[in-house]
Amino acid sequence: MRARGAVLVVLLLLAGCTGGAGPAPAPVDSVRFASYDFPENQILVEVYAEAVRRAGIPVSVQHGIGTREVVSPALQQGVVDVVVDYLGTALAFARPEFPRPPVVPEEMHAVLSRTMGGRGVDVLAPAAAEDQNGFVVTRAFAAEHHVRTLSELAPLAPGLVFGGPPECPHRPFCLLGLEQVYGVRFADVLAMPTRAATLEALLSGQVDVGMLETTDARLAVAPVVLLEDDRALQPRENVVPMVRAEAADRWGDRLRKALDETSARLTTDDLVQLNRAVELDGRSVAEAAALWWDAQ
């Protein structure tokens, strides 16, 4: 029932249902991309969508559809055609009860491909670019408490406030994983609407620990410390495009080649620079993607 409701939400968004005249629905004669509700994923979707445009294939993009609970069913049920995901998180979401999940990217990709293939989705080759969940404190906090690792954070956590995305308490690689792997239990948890808001709350003292992606460009300029994941909670998170099988068949080699060539070029440093262009330099996600392709 939850999945049906999620897909209905996506259908309404794609149709631009606002109670009156709204945007036209995404055309069925285009490759329909959808992004998750955070900036980096929107950037990645634009990078891959731009490659498809330059291959001469019509494209439509719908940004910020929601979390995986919304977007994954929409992909499987044919509401959207392409989603750009992260290998470890995508596998954990697709196979939450997998008894011994693989840790090597090639094996993770093989299991994800088999799983999603049975649901009408092709998992293409992953990129070298990788992004994981990261947990940060201010430099002042790290110096005062002599904290550099998540293990060292654990005994302090009962007196601390955590800030992160609303879904974090239920994610195996966010708060749920911190509790299971490190025994970290915070005094309070505040839901943050954006990563920028998380950083602001951290620097203002509203929260003591925040979640930011490891490729967040602000890590290089803000007075914060990324805590070491010394017990390897985070899986490998290579960027990986997933395509509805019917769309892949319809558009053929041109679509697959455009997406595969993008993955072959994209590095983690590229991802950091793309994030910087949007988060620090004020570019739109479409501008950042087009500039990256022009530089290629």
TrEMBL record:
* Residues in ABC-type glycine betaine transport system substrate-binding domain copies: 30-294
Q: Which domain of life is it from?
A: Bacteria
Sorted UniProt keywords:
Signal
Tell me which PROSITE patterns the record gives.
PROKAR_LIPOPROTEIN
Q: Keyword Cell wall biogenesis/degradation on this protein?
A: no
Entries under InterPro entries matching the protein? ABC_Gly_betaine_transp_sub-bd
Please list which residues make up the signal peptide. 1-26
Q: Please identify the protein, giving its name as recorded.
A: ABC transporter substrate-binding protein
Q: Which organism is it from?
A: Blastococcus goldschmidtiae
Lineage, broadest ranks: Bacteria, Bacillati, Actinomycetota, Actinomycetes, Geodermatophilales
